[in-house]
Predict the structure of ATPase.
Amino acid sequence: MYLDFFGFKEQPFNVTPDPKFLNFSESYQDALAYLIYGIRMRKGFVVLTGEIGIGKTTVINALLERLDDSHRISSLVHSNMSLKDMLRFIFRDYGLDASGKSKSELLLNLQEFLIRLDQKGGNAVLIVDEAQNLRSWQLEEIRLLSNIETAKRKLIQIVLVGQPELLHLMNSLELKQFKQRVSLHFHLTTLTQDEMETYVEHRLKVAGYQGKRLFEDGALEEIYKFSEGIPRLINAICDRALIKACVSGHRKIDRKLLRKVM
Ligand SMILES: Nc1ncnc2c1ncn2[C@@H]1O[C@H](COP(=O)(O)OP(=O)(O)OP(=O)(O)O)[C@@H](O)[C@H]1O
Ligand SMILES: [Mg+2]
């Protein structure tokens, strides 16, 4: 509704992860570099954690765009599935036939596939998003997959992505063995206020805004207090502020207006 009022070509603060709007501050660039390094160096397990709405899935989407064709990628969003179900998804993503096979046959076939891929110079990647919801026995099963290796290297790189509870889960006693296998862990940190301001500016620009400065300093301070530098919350509050400004005929957003929508 406010598109014409402000002269936007599209909504600047949509919550869908559109790559056009990507704005990679230092922590995101580092996260991406860590993930790429872990995969290229065949570290076996790489873990990415961060608060709700901070941009973990966004980083993973950026990662998928950056891995070249030598990588075979399976990307799962965890929902309560057994190893056998998980293997079926992995088979589909790797273009293998899983029909009518038992769990042990699937594991054997996967191993054969990974060895062939490795011989051809390829690298297999498995990404499990929302991994904080995994039960410890499920994490243990995923660990079994990482056992597929040659004397020299891991044949499948597993990227676990989740909210900070994932760390608690990994720290639990029965998973000590699992934790020892994780060679790389990166925790995404919230945006600083400067980074948030760059983030907001960037989104307005990409959405086609060409007018005068829209958010005043006082408003930006309020947005930062409210969002604590979490992108999803920044988007939500900015969107509400734009609607309110449009409805009340304001072309600028100040502290007072911002407080009304918090
Ligand atoms: N670096 C970024 N550049 C641009 N937009 C971003 C960035 N990070 C996050 N966002 C925005 O914030 C929203 C939330 O990000 P995302 O869904 O990746 O968070 P998440 O950490 O995966 O959340 P959850 O814990 O709920 O899974 C995205 O839809 C996107 O609009
Ligand atoms: Mg996510």
